[in-house]
Automatic annotation (TrEMBL):
InterPro entries xref list: Aminotrans_II_pyridoxalP_BS (IPR001917), Aminotransferase_I/II_large (IPR004839), HisP_aminotrans (IPR005861), PyrdxlP-dep_Trfase (IPR015424), PyrdxlP-dep_Trfase_major (IPR015421), PyrdxlP-dep_Trfase_small (IPR015422)
Entry's EC annotation: 2.6.1.9
SUPFAM superfamilies for this protein: PLP-dependent transferases
Protein name as annotated: Histidinol-phosphate aminotransferase
Modified residues (N6-(pyridoxal phosphate)lysine): 211
Biological source species: Rhodanobacter glycinis
Catalytic function, reaction form: L-histidinol phosphate + 2-oxoglutarate = 3-(imidazol-4-yl)-2-oxopropyl phosphate + L-glutamate
Gene Ontology biological-process annotations: L-histidine biosynthetic process
CDD domains: AAT_like
Pathway: Amino-acid biosynthesis; L-histidine biosynthesis; L-histidine from 5-phospho-alpha-D-ribose 1-diphosphate: step 7/9
């Protein structure tokens, strides 16, 4: 059985749009795409008057090398969100098929499913926010075509063990595509499962340059998967998804100097994460700091509303995650610079917080 047998038959059969850039081969004078012949003011040789490559070769090669896959196993697009949307549209028939998720988790899986009118099967994480493989398999129905796993999970921060991912990939073979979201994997000790793609054709991995690579504003995300899955998604992808300035920013970040800089910053984040875990756990009014392998901490407070408002009044914005299942008392705090982290701790220890769930005098 081919993994494409899980996809929508009408997507497999459709004639994809063929863009002018895809059809062009060679040439010096380009009069095939109805572009302007003149570059815009301030272009500085970038060539923004021309449509970009649908899958820029230099960027695809750089990302494939970074992630340890072959270029035909990689699709690059507008953040992981685009890849999630493409997967749902390609594999889920409206009103008939479904995805499976484990809340609390990243909200875009469910949003993309609802836009497609696909069903959503929820298998909550265990009380300690770990993944229950047996529960996932027990909840699987023939309608489920995509199983999403976020590791490290957002908003809780725990990774999913590699053995659990592999067990799911094996069990889902011929039944569903397993999509492993590794947006925060650079901050984790667990490492990527991308090497398993050659072993399991029903395994896909989401990666992004938004977090560890400091390019949230450029919107560069990748899907790593079986070459047939990548080719299928290219059929329904927008013809020119990547703006030239974003491609240039990504190539700079992935240069030798850019990679060294990113790895240095990742090290700082991991050090600061450990420091913040220790400091926050000592504060009165903090019920729990969840263990995290991401670039954030989910923190339970006696008075989460008071803490949120107190930080906001001091100019510090954190994420209120109390709407998520089993996180009704929690805030998510991203690890910032050492100075920003000091400022968070100073506010939480300030007299303004005394008697409102967090008190001054904690170490």
């Amino acid at each position: 059985m081919s993994v494409l047998d899980l996809a929508r038959p009408e997507i497999r059969a459709m004639q994809p749009y063929s863009s002018a850039r895809m059809e062009a081969s060679g040439g010096e004078v380009f009069l095939n795409a109805n572009e302007s012949a003149w570059a815009p003011v301030g272009d500085d040789g970038l060539g923004c008057n021309r449509y970009p490559e649908p899958q820029p070769a230099a960027l695809v090669d750089a990302l494939a090398a970074l992630y340890g896959v072959r270029r035909e196993q990689l699709l690059v697009g507008r953040g992981s969100d685009e890849a999630i949307d493409l997967l749902v549209r390609a594999f889920c028939r409206a009103g008939r098929d479904a995805i499976l998720i484990q809340p609390p988790t990243f909200g875009m899986y469910a949003v993309s499913a609802r836009v497609q009118d696909a069903g959503i099967v929820e298998v909550p994480l265990a009380a300690d926010f770990t993944l229950d493989v047996d529960a996932v398999l027990a909840a699987l129905t023939p309608a489920v075509k995509l199983v999403f796993i976020c590791t490290p999970n957002n908003p809780t921060g725990q990774p999913v063990p590699r053995a659990a991912v592999e067990r799911l990939a094996q069990a889902l073979s011929g039944r569903a595509l397993l999509v492993v979201d590794e947006a925060y994997v650079e901050f984790s000790d667990a490492g990527s499962v991308a090497a398993l793609i050659d072993r399991y054709d029903n395994l896909a991995v989401l990666r992004t340059l938004s977090k560890a690579w400091a390019l949230a504003g450029a919107r560069i995300g990748s899907l790593l998967a079986n070459a047939e899955v990548i080719a299928l998604l290219r059929r329904i992808m927008a013809p020119y998804p990547l703006p030239l300035p974003c491609v240039e920013a990504a190539l700079m970040a992935l240069s030798g100097w850019g990679q060294a800089n990113a790895r240095e910053r990742i090290g700082i984040v991991c050090e600061q994460r450990a420091r913040m875990q220790t400091a926050l756990r000592r504060l009165p009014g903090v019920r729990e700091v969840l263990p995290s392998q991401a670039n954030f901490l989910a923190v339970r407070f006696d008075e989460a509303t008071v803490v949120y408002q107190g930080l906001l009044a001091a100019g510090i914005v954190v994420r209120d995650v109390r709407r998520y299942p089993n996180l009704g008392d929690a805030l998510r705090i991203t690890i910032g610079t050492p100075a920003e982290n000091d400022r968070v701790l100073a506010v939480l220890k300030s007299p303004a917080m005394d008697g409102q769930g967090v008190a001054e005098g904690a170490a």
